[in-house]
Amino acid sequence: MLATLLLFPKIAIGSGSGVLIGEIGLFLIAPLLLAVQSINLSHRSAVAMLLFASFLVSYIYFPYALTLFSGEDVGLKSVFYTARVVGYALVGLLLCTGALKNKSDHALYIILRNSFLLHAVMALGYFAWAFARIEPSVGEIIGSVNAGSRLSPLYGMVVTGGELPLNVVGGGSANLLASHALAVLVAAYYFEKSRKVEIILYLLAVTLLLFGQSRGGVLTLLLWGSVRAFVLRRRSPTEFSTTLFVVLCIVAFTYMIASLADTLALFRRVSDAFEIGELDGSSQSRLQNYAAVFNVWISSPFYMLFGLGLDESALQARTGWTVVESMYLSVLFCGGLLSATLFCVFVGYVFRIAQGCPWLRVLKVFLIVNSVFNWSVTGGDITSAPSLFSIFFFLGASGRRVFVGSAFVNRVR
User: Fold this and answer.
1) Over the stretch 385-404, which tens digit does the pLDDT of each residue have?
2) How far is CA 347 from each of CA 41, 147, 309, 328, 378, rounded to the nearest angstrom?
3) Cβ neighbour number for residue 196 with a 10 Å cutoff
4) Which end of the chain has less neighbouring CB within 10 Å, N or C?
């Protein structure tokens, strides 16, 4: 159930967002399952989950309350859309119930891995269907906003009644795919029994992100490949070093021939971004976005402490922009110093207790690698479906263990 509920397409809420059909199912089914089963969660994992939940409340819901208190209008669409995060908290709790707490770490990893593989298959199936249905060019299949490989159900497709049953809605960025892939790849290092399967997962993820034209996503997975090959050398370092070398050769070769193929827009974007004074439109837009929101944020001590809020209409009215195109700056500007402090406390606590528990080590590495590119300068979002699912999954899986001194011991071993 956990692997499949989040794979269904979205139902539109207004014109710019949507809620996954699987998210609605999770919200309805999970409370019923929790009501009939006992929850056995380790103390320190419970504290970590509570800290993360507190951060989400301060980042998402508290600004809404302040906006309503000030008399400003908050669209019900935004409130309903963000209410879905409650369902992801239930994912972590479900892993500590009687039905799953006796599962091995590898069995839980298989749930996580298969959710990504199913999603990748659905994405490839959609590309094939789109090509057969609307016969776009190869360039459109790779990079088009309406038919490109940035799109797949979990990240940005909505069910409609028109000629095409799946259409684009918000959240279709390949940066979200990067977070999902990274979570699975880090878990694969600790729990995958076959190194060949781990390598296949890595190659599949890099391929999808190359087609998705996500510079931050590609750099994030290249960074993970480097960490995996040269820092985390406990398992098959030679095999993974070879794989990373092959991937780098493919990326470099594709970059060299980019001028010969219009379909390789990602590498032209990378090239333009590094030319002196020649930032591409996306990079220029991000810099303008950061400056505009920052200027409004520092204009009021109230905004600095409690944030500008995540509601798109309210944020646009205040800053001229509907989003902040950096996760960390969004936490600071939209959630204020309060949210930023709570997030730092959560991360610090996870780092402190991670020793001895592989699931918390997975979460620790996931947070570090994601922060370098994907969450700092791209549109990767910690409140997106892949990130919320992964983080609460890791916390719930770690809660199935008890502490003995400074280490964790699996309850079922």
Assistant:
1) 888 889 999 998 888 754 44
2) 19, 37, 22, 13, 20
3) 10
4) C
Q: Assess whether pLDDT exceeds 90 at residue 215.
A: no
Angle between helices 215-230 and 195-211 (to 10 degrees): 160
What backbone torsions phi and psi does residue 104 show, to the nearest 5 degrees? Answer: -75, 165
Closest CA to 211 of 130, 147, 281, 272: 147
* Separate counts of helices (H) and strands (E) for the chain: 19, 6
State the alpha helices, DSSP H only, in 275-410: 281-297, 301-306, 312-319, 327-353, 358-372, 385-398
Per-residue pLDDT tens digits for 264-301: 454 455 455 544 445 555 667 778 888 999 999 999 89
- Which H or E element spans position 407? strand 407-410
What is the token pair recorded at 47?
């504290």
Please give the model's pTM, rounded to 2 decimal places: 0.84
- Angle (CA) 8-10-15 rounded to 5° is 170
Q: Report the SS3 class of residue 79.
A: helix
Q: Are 376 and 326 in contact (CB under 8 A)?
A: yes
Query: Can you give the residue range of the structural domain that contains 296?
Result: 5-410
Task: Work out how many domains the chain is built from and give that number.
Answer: 1
Question: Taking the CB of residue 252, how many other CB atoms lie within 10 A of it?
Answer: 10
User: At CA 375, angle to CA 155 and CA 359, rounded to 5?
Assistant: 85
Q: CB under 8 Å, gap of 24 or more: what pairs does 18-25 form? A: 18/81, 18/158, 18/169, 18/170, 18/171, 19/80, 19/81, 19/84, 20/84, 20/153, 20/154, 20/385, 21/159, 23/84, 23/87, 23/385
